[in-house]
Amino acid sequence: MFSFLKKKQSKNIRIVGTDQELLINDVAITFPTNYETLVTVFGEPSRTSKTKLSKSPVICWDAEGVYGSCGSYSHIYGFSLIFSKNHDLDLIPENNFSGSIIINNEEVQFDNFSKIEHPTYLVDKLTYKDKEEPYALSFRTNLDYKKEIPKDKYILQKQTEPHIEFIDFGFKLAVIEELMYTQEVLHPKFELYEFVEWYTKRKIDIEEEGYEPIAEVTQFFNDLQIPKHMAPLLTEIYQDGGNDVYMNLLRFGSGSEDYWDIKSAADVKNFPNLKKATLCYAEDTVYDEMIAMGIDAESL
């Protein structure tokens, strides 16, 4: 009885790393990974929140002792396993990690662990500020490993087939979120850090410029054409400050910006199967316009 008071039991986690791959419970992990993959291996997270400084989402698995900070739920560059309370962090799992870690056929013990560097990922200890004792192991992408980006990846070719002409940029972004990041049928799939590495006309410094929309990034989404044959695929739009499209447009956004507010529902006419809209970036009149068009429109 009173089962609802019981703490969630930790999931048995086994991490195996080799020079070729990283496996969690036999699921191959490549960085950047994504939210859905981490849920597959660690289960549903206990909570998500945002850091006070960068407003980046933090995902916590309290029972498992796992957490990750990410700029975008579709591009997560690492996760950490808690082994000690020797830190003053707020957004941190309640329990320590209790699973097993095997690296190159040897079981890892936290107290005698040294940094491991692989071609595509790094495993290292994390130490809080001036404290000597580490508090976690971090698994993250190896930034020295450069995956070749096709030279034409972000060059937008003019569509040879009919494409949708948008009136409202905010509405277009909501459509892109669904087709590019949820359904993954609209290409190229835009990733901010990759785009910055690919871009050669000037050096874009995300740490310096990421607090405001970056002109070249905004222009990419402006110029991106959506073919008309994809219109029937759109049945729902869902706006949230943590949507991938917004996190790529504004790396250090707070979620309260109004850059991408939908000001008109006129573009709805292009999407005959759109039945539901959950909005957080939209003017009040847009809800009434959509409802009048037979769409179940509500505020997030």
Write up what this structure looks like.
Helices cover 19% and strands 20% of the residues. By secondary structure, the chain is an alpha+beta fold. The strands form three sheets. It has a seven-stranded antiparallel beta sheet, with no helix packed on it. Strand 14 (276-279), helix 7 (284-292) and strand 15 (296-299) form a beta-alpha-beta unit. The longest helix is centred in the middle third of the chain and has 14 residues, at 169-182. It is globular, with a radius of gyration of 22 Å. The relative contact order is 0.11.
N-C termini distance? 36 Å
- pLDDT < 50 stretches: 1-6
Report the mean per-residue pLDDT as an integer: 88
How much helix is in the residues? 10-25%
Radius of gyration: 22 Å
Output the helix-strand order. Answer: EEEHEEEEEEEEEHHHHEHEHE
Question: Which sequence of strands runs across the widest sheet?
Answer: 4-5-6-7-12-11-10
Query: How many beta-strand elements?
Result: 15
Number of domains as seen in the coordinates: 2
Question: Could you list some keywords that capture this structure?
Answer:
single chain, seven-stranded antiparallel beta sheet, disordered N terminus, alpha+beta, about 300 residues, 7 helices
Briefly say what this structure is:
By secondary structure, the protein is an alpha+beta fold. It contains seven helices and 15 strands.
